């Protein structure tokens, strides 16, 4: 048996490794040429300390308290030289990936679909090459090189991990480099290079109610999260508020309906800013966060949207005295990676 371990480095790079049954994370990483921090490998120095965000494991009792105190262990801190996983795990590594002699992965694929969903958004689907491995955590993003040597642009996955076809929601920006390519030049069969995954915005283990707040194409990471949740299930209440500027900017609503059917605890609402809209809910997402979806702060909040929206939600929570149990957010601006914008 083997477990998948996601190593999230402090520079935003994520590497996935396989860990054999009974093997420590440190040994598994070194076997796969990822040099995690280490001085002693005996649970004495604490150099290999990290934080396990989710997953099951055994730490044994062969380490010194000076290396890992009981309080640290209770908070999810681990010593990778002693940690033996018994499930898939996600571990925060408090150093840059370059210091561990690893780097973000690069893969190739073929453009399969490009569809303009509205004046504001484009859906891109890329079929990854046979044998290409693209593991990621739902919510993360990737760099896509713009054909023609115009650098790269960064987009969150809207597809679930493990799929051969990766999909993305891309904002249609007038005169944008990627937008221009997709609307005027792209054709099925074009070759694309992708680098990633990246980002600290991803779905954590759900142990309490969840509130998701999406602005425009910031819906993409939530589609990826919901894809995984629909497969694994959850008994916790989950509500998504999806805000756009105009009526015809609302996209993938059919997908949200399908998720609501598959996930009995999932609900969603849509909000339109345009005052001329006939939509039943107008204004901003902050106008429609009712008490029943806030659960008196006993919630995990995930927020992805343009900077003004993110800032408005942060100010609203502060003004209302709302302190969620956890709060994960990502800003994005045109031509900038979500992680780079925050």
UniProtKB/TrEMBL annotation:
According to the entry, every stretch annotated as the 4Fe-4S ferredoxin-type domain falls at: 30-62
**Which GO molecular function entries does the Swiss-Prot or TrEMBL record give?**
2 iron, 2 sulfur cluster binding; dioxygenase activity
Start and end residues of each FAD-binding FR-type domain? 104-204
- Which is an annotated Pfam family here? NAD_binding_1
Keywords tagged on the record: Dioxygenase, Oxidoreductase
Cofactor(s) annotated in UniProt: [2Fe-2S] cluster
Q: By its UniProt entry, which Gene3D superfamilies does this protein fall under? A: 3.10.20.30, Nucleotide-binding domain of ferredoxin-NADP reductase (FNR) module, Translation factors
Q: Does the keyword Transferase apply?
A: no
Task: Kindly indicate whether the keyword Oxidoreductase belongs to this entry.
Answer: yes
Where does the record place the 2Fe-2S ferredoxin-type domain? 3-97
What is the protein's given name? Benzoate/toluate 1,2-dioxygenase reductase subunit
Native source organism of the sequence: Halomonas ventosae
Taxonomic lineage: Bacteria, Pseudomonadati, Pseudomonadota, Gammaproteobacteria, Oceanospirillales
């Amino acid at each position: 048996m083997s477990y998948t371990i996601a190593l999230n480095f402090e520079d935003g790079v994520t590497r996935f490794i396989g860990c054999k049954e009974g093997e420590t994370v440190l040994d598994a990483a070194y076997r796969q040429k990822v040099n995690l921090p280490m001085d002693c490998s005996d649970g004495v120095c604490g150099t290999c300390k990290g934080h396990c965000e989710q997953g099951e494991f055994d730490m044994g009792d062969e380490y010194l308290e000076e290396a890992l105190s009981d309080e640290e262990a209770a908070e999810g801190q681990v010593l990778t030289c002693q940690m033996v996983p018994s499930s898939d795990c996600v571990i925060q590594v408090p150093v840059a990936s370059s210091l561990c002699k690893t780097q973000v992965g690069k893969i190739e694929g073929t453009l399969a679909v490009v569809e303009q969903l509205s004046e504001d958004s484009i859906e891109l689907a890329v079929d990854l090459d046979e044998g290409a491995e693209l593991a990621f955590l739902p919510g993360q993003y990737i760099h896509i090189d713009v054909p023609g040597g115009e650098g790269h642009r960064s987009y969150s996955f809207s597809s679930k991990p493990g799929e051969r076809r990766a999909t993305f929601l891309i904002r249609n920006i007038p005169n944008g480099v990627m937008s221009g390519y997709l609307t005027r030049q792209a054709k099925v069969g074009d070759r694309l290079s992708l680098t990633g995954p990246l980002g600290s915005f991803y779905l954590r283990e759900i142990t309490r109610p969840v509130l998701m707040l999406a602005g425009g194409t910031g819906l993409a990471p939530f589609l990826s999260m919901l894809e995984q949740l629909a497969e694994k299930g959850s008994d916790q209440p989950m509500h998504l508020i999806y805000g756009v500027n105009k009526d015809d900017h609302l996209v993938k609503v059919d997908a949200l309906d399908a998720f609501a059917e598959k996930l009995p605890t999932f609900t969603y609402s849509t909000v339109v800013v345009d005052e001329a809209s006939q939509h039943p809910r107008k204004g901003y997402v902050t106008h429609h966060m009712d008490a029943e979806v806030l659960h008196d702060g006993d919630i995990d909040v995930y927020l992805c949207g343009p900077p003004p929206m993110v800032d408005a939600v942060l100010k609203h929570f502060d003004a209302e005295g709302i302190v969620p149990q956890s709060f994960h957010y990502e800003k994005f601006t045109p031509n900038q990676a979500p992680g780079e914008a925050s």
